[in-house]
Amino acid sequence: MYDLAIIGGGPAGSAAAVDASRKRLKTLFLTVATAEGGGQDFGGQSVVSADIQHWIGTVSVSGTDLAHALERHVRAYASDVVDVHTAEKVTGITKIDGGFSILTEASASYHTKTLLVATGSTRRKITVPGADIFEHKGIPYCASCDGPLFAGRDVVVLGGGNAAFETAAQLLAYAKSVTLLHRSEGYRADPVTVEKILANPKMTAITNAELLEIHGDKFVTDLSYKDKITGETRELKTGGIFVEIGLIPSTSFLEGVVKLNEYKQVVVDPKTQQTSVHGIWAAGDATDGLYHQNNIAAGDIAVNEIFQSLEPGGLFQHNGSTRDPATTVWRQVEQAVQTTLEATTLETLAAQVRDQIPSGVNHPFTFHI
Fold first, then answer.
1. pLDDT, mean of each 10-residue run, the chain (369 residues)
2. 108 and 72 share a domain?
C-alpha cells in the first residue's frame, strides 16, 4: 500500500510529487493528458499557452516547455520513492481498511493510505462557427498567461461573471479597448466589481448579445452576434476574444466520495487543503479556492499536512501549531456531524476530546454533553 497517491500532473500535482519524494513518502503519481492538453500528461491547462510570463523565476516560457520542465523535475526526484504512471485516467475511488482503493480506466487498481487530488479543470469552450479554427489564434482562455500578447489591441471578453470582469480588469492594463459581450441582461458578478470595471473609459459592455460566428484569416479579425432584443445581427471588430464562460472541474470520479460545491469543485479547508473526508486532500484548480493560477496551485501545502498525518504516532496540526490529539478527534466529530451519525456517537467522540485535553490547557472547544 502506498503512503500517498497523487492524481494530476499540473503544477499542483507535480509540486506535490517533488515534495513527497523529499519527505520519502512512498507515492503513486497518476496523470493523463486532458482534452486540451495536446497529448501532454504534464502541465495542466497551461500546456496550450504560447507565452507564460508569470511563472515565477522564469521570464517567459511556453506551455509545452513548462510541461516538459514539470515532468523533468518530477522524474529527477522520483528515484525509488515516487512511481510515475502516465496516461492513466482515474475512474473511481473507494474507501478500504486503512486507506483508499483507486481504479483506473485500464482496470488497474491501487491502494493508498492517503490521497491528493490535483486534477485541475478544463475551460468551458464556445462552439459557434469559427471557434475551433481560431482557438489559440486569437481566442485564448487565460488572460493571466496570454493577456500581454494583446497589448494595444481592441479585445473582447465573453461572459458576465466575476471571472469575466477580473479578466477585463487585467486586459485594461494592456489593451487599447475591452468590450464585454454577455448573453443576458444582468451580470452574475459582484455589483461593486461591475461598477468599478465599467467605469473605466476603455471599457464597453454589450448585454443581450448572442454570439453567432467568429471570423478571421490567419488570426481573429471580427465576430458577429445577435442583439436578442431587436433580433439584428451585428459585427464587431476585434483583435482577440477571451473566453470566460466557466470552468469544468475534472472531479467526476469524486461524485459521492467527497463534498463538491455547486460547480463540482472539491470543497477544502483553505488552511490545510483537506476535503470533507479524512485522508483525502485536494489542491489546485479542482478545488473551491478563491483564485486559480499556476503559482498558487504549486504553492498548496497539502503534502506537509499529509506527511504529518503519516508520521508514527503523528496527528494533524491545529491552526498551524503543534500536533494536538484533541484536534484530530475534533475533526472526527466534525465529520460525524457532516455524515449525521447518531447523537450517542457524537457524545462519545466529544467525551474523547474532553478527556484528552490536560487540565488547565487553553483550547478552542466547548462541550455540551
1. 94 92 94 67 72 79 86 92 93 95 93 94 88 90 81 95 87 95 91 92 96 95 96 96 89 95 92 92 89 74 84 46 45 52 58 60 54
2. yes
Q: Determine the distance from the C-alpha atom of residue 29 to the mean position of all C-alpha atoms in its chain, rounded to a whole number.
A: 18
Do the Cβ atoms of 102 and 115 come closer than 8 Å? yes
Triad 190, 172, 57: Cα angle to 5°: 100
Instruction: Tell me the residue range of the domain where 203 lies.
Output: 143-243
> Is residue 28 a contact partner of residue 19, using CB atoms and an 8 Å limit?
no
Residue 111 confidence (pLDDT): 97
Question: Angle between the 11-22 and 302-310 helix axes, to the nearest 10 degrees?
Answer: 30
Q: Write the DSSP symbol of residue 241.
A: E
Instruction: Tell whether 7 is covered by a domain.
Output: yes
Instruction: Select from 155, 214, 166 the least CA-distant residue to 189.
Output: 166
SS3 303: helix
H-run or E-run covering 295: helix 294-298
| Cell (9 digits) for 312 | 508514527
Task: Count how many residues are written for the chain.
Answer: 369
| Residue after which a domain boundary falls, among 310, 332, 357 | 310
CATH number for 148: 3.50.50.60
> Do 224 and 277 fall within a single domain?
no
- 3-class DSSP state for residue 266? strand
Q: Are residues 233 and 265 in the same domain?
A: no
Pick the closest to residue 252 from 4, 11, 16, 34 (CA basis).
34
Phi, psi of 54 (to 5 degrees): -120, 15
Whether 321 is covered by a domain: the verdict is no
Based on the fold, state whether residues 119 and 7 are members of the same structural domain.
yes
